[in-house]
Protein 1
Amino acid sequence: RTGVVLVMAWVMVAVTGKFREVRAVPRGELGFVLASGAATCASWLCYYRALQDGPASVVVPIDKLSVLVTVLFSALVLREAIGRRYLVGLVLLVGGTLAMLM
């Protein structure tokens, strides 16, 4: 999956004609992009391993609840504002995920 995303990202760079702009991205930012790609790849490998070891009915809801970690990170570290619509969506997402466990 990560490979497909990587290929499609480069296809979009080519289609939009932004190859020259890629060279202008600071090395530090490219490092973050590469680290993000590596983390995504590792996450999927762990997910598929968990599916081999446990039932999907348990693994999938746990994976979906990782959105709570993302929201917490965005609020505490990135200082993103969390509005009412945001919270309603989060509650619905978590509620639906918890319903899968039943």
Note: The helical segments are 2-16, 19-23, 27-53, 56-64, 67-76, 84-101.
Protein 2
Amino acid sequence: MKKFGKALILVLLLVAVGGGGFILGNNMQAVPGASTEEQAADRRILKNINLYREAIQSDYLFPYKKEDLETGIYKGLFWGLKDPYSEYYTAEEYKRLMEDTTGKFAGVGLVITAGEDNLITVVSPIANTPAAKAGLKAGDKIVEVDGQAYAGKELQEATEHMRGKPKTSVELTVQRVINGKTQTSHVKLVREMIEVDTVIGKLMPDNIGYLQISSFEQVTAQDFKKEWEALEKQGAKKFIIDLRNNPGGLLTSCEEIADALLGKATIVTTVDNKGKKDASTSDEAQYKEPLVVLANGGSASASEILLGALRDNKRAKSVGEKTFGKGIVQQIYPLGENGKDGGFKLTMAEYLTPNGEKIHGKGITPDIVVKAPEQAKGMGPDFLKEDPQLQRALQEVKGL
């Protein structure tokens, strides 16, 4: 299977300078290939930063830290892209970002992003966490944390506020659109140590294997194969993969799972800003059992890549609701050895499904659309009577 280079690639922001046009300091260095206009802009930017800094040093009333000014410059550079998925991380923020990919952190269990309306938007709650148990849903807007207002551009600050020591509480002010009207509620959550078991397998009646993938982390592909083969040994002849409320994660993990399910085929193609295409492909070896996939509005990024690959290659039927619609890929750039000086994340490509479909901002509509009830207490095998999407998936997979 062809991989996307050596750098760590994330397909979704998890719960928030090289490559810039100028270098801070007294000695201006031209960026290779920069035009005369770009070099003039670089000099102007550097001149203005020095001017502003001198004014702050001379006249600003309150105490401040010089390192905070430097951090603000870097964060502002990425904020200027107006892209919620590209941002600068301090050393501590970068460390926590890397911890997220292991599936272990302390908090409430929300995956969030900055929406186009500059509001902090829930991509999905993580299964069996305080946020999920409290009923938070994809599309909810987090406007305050403990009474402090946060906008989308303050995503990292809001994330830090929601995290904390286990057994401590935090109150979220949440906006949700119901019947065309925005309703506001206050939700009190108790933080827990979140240890995401990203793959859960269960043998259902009629020898149907059920596999829920809650996110794509470092161990997810390995755990997926282990659970699939364990269900086969228990007698599973057909399978359902549940990607509902899966916000994405590591592209490499998603690719490995797609590789296990597909024969020789294209998984996904990325296109960079120069139009260069790079295709990820699977080999001939595969699990061949009949398959149905579940998805909903909380299925994003890597989930959509897997869904698109299975759909376009006619490997699986899909059931549920339209997905989130995140079709761009970010690359992590560490600063210093292993990110000891922080890092940044930059959107560097758009992805296409094997049929060439762009889904960013559009999502993928499943083959069979089934709406989930608004007041359902849960979903999955333990809530089968309240889960019409899983009921329909069982019906479909029996017919394959």
Note: The chain is about 25% helix and 25% strand.
Protein 3
Amino acid sequence: MPEEIPGLLERLAEVPDPRDPRGVRHALVVVLALTACAVLAGATSLPAVGEWITDAPPSVLERLGVRPDPLFPKRCLPAEATVQRLLGRIDGDALDQAVGRWLADRRAGADGQLHAVAVDGKTLRGAARATGRKIHLLAACDHINGLTLAQLDVGEKANESLYPAYRTSAQP
């Protein structure tokens, strides 16, 4: 929803930018917001994200903070390669926490009621090829909205009841 964009941009601004500030053409928060919108619109691959960004309506680009190009009468958009390189370099845990906080912010204001949260662990497929070890994630999900509130790499697979309590910043 358009009224939720400022809150999303505020939370995405919490993710540290891994780039040297010299020569940065696109703000990290803008690239992350464009990518999030593309995925929410159904993009399932980086080429699809790039196509969505290219075809995004001017009103959406303006709301997300995409700056106009100083030389041409259009907005300066990040290319698919830029999105891919940047997504490969950002701190995934920081992004995960920022998105989780934004989702928690949205839930907190909705009805003030407490809702049950399900916790489950999964092993990522194919991750061992890139990192040399299997990655095991413990995730907390809000089943009313179908949202993942937070997830944590727990290092090794074990019974979920053995993991220490993982609390998000939205909890008292």
Note: Strands lie at 118-123, 136-142, 147-153.
Protein 4
Amino acid sequence: MLQSYRAQWDDSALAKRWQALVPRERLAVSALLAFVLLVLLYVGLWQPTQQRVHTARNAFEAQRELNAYMHSQAPLLRNQASTPQTSIDPTRLQGLITSSAAAHGLSIERLDNDSAGAVQVNLQPAPFARLLQWIEHLQGQGVQISEAGLDRGADNAVAARLTLRAGDGEG
């Protein structure tokens, strides 16, 4: 099999052209071929790998900053949870949620009333800091969060699923 490939190579026009080159030209063509091969390896393998490493490093740093921010805000949220809050009329809860979400630049995907007087809210992805400000505002108005689910989206945005209740000190 190897001999048949060798015979085909020897009969090809490219092989005859190669044999016609003087040794100095063969060396120049070989060096050029090696250079082109190295450039193709760099552009095809090394450069994309380095770009992925850079992207992963940036994503890691963003997540590290978010983690540090969340840990720095945790004592503040714990203190707020232990302080007495104002009370809100349960009939005004849905209106307060929609108006305050719009005021904080948040978009509500879905809003459902629960049979227990709670309101379930699904928010479109938004910056985490904006979501925390809105939650802080709601808690200041006497709204309690009984359940929360967060999903990280693109560009460090967070989609939230919350169950909110009119707060009166009960959970």
Note: Strands lie at 108-113, 119-127, 143-152, 157-166.
